[in-house]
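Researcher: Structure for this, please.
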Amino acid sequence: MSGKHGKFKRREIRDLIQNEYGLKVYNMHEGDKGILTYTNQGDKIFKKMKKDEAQLLFVASAYNHIKSKGFKNISALCKTLEGKYYTKYDGSLYVLEDSMKGKSFSITSEEDGRKIGEVLAKFHTAANNFIPATGSRAKVDWGRWIDKVKVQSVRLKKFKEIAESGTYSTKFDRIFLKYVDEYIKQAEEAYILLKNSGYMERVYMAMQTNQLCHKTFKKHSLTLLDDGDIFISSLENCSYDIIETDLVSLLESCVGTKSLAYLESVLQGYSSLKPLDANSINIIRALLIQPGRFYKIVNRYYGKKKNYNEYELLKKMERGIRKEERRKEIAKKLEEVMQ
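Model: Predicted structure, token format:
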């Protein structure tokens, strides 16, 4: 094992895992997701969590519920010998999560698109009717997008007034003013799409069935195994929400410029098990065109006015604009699919 943890720290972590979980650790090395740990009970990821005990119990309950419904290709949080889903190290909470060998999933064919669409539909079916363990603190995102998009539009207009007032005259201001009208228009269009596509009705339906969503159904959470199956992990941001939010995450992460042609196959795969209607597609379009990334960055500059590095924030905005443009391409392709 190499990386940011020194030899003493590595030995500490190895001993901690062996003592807390009763496992034999053969080897360890650091990766993007955490510390990959090879044990006598399979591969695990040891990672720091920015959550409290009640929030982690909610995540552990989600894993357990989905597995109990017959969805097997999903990770889980390991229990310590004391029956807890976490351990404490260096003043923080850590979890030990099941891992599998494989490569990051990507869509390079219609078959890939259909496969991942089907996997997500099966995941949503298994994640339905979820009631967490007693003592959990649930994460609930039902119905938030209407207000979020409305706030984006109002505040972007306010930020535009600030930038045009002459109070600021930086490169950040100039780039912001170049794009802000376009993103105000997109926020307003997203709001209308949500209102006209039965967004709140979908929310009420999801509430009636306690629909759980992954919330980061992206490449880093999807591992293609040697046998062709797809293994799902990184459920720590899961929450109660509508299924369309996971489809947005999947499309924006796995459907790039080169794989736009396979977008329809993703929807076909999903719809073969859980049919999507025009309202669902329009909700997905709305969530793709709302300029959330752009708004988050400029809100930090014009709104919160906390300490920030202007150069780093400028680079974040430039990256954010590129991502917004890619999302807009996906939304445009969705519109073509509907015609």
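Researcher: Any notable elements?
Model: The mean pLDDT is 93. The first strand starts at residue 25 and ends at 30.
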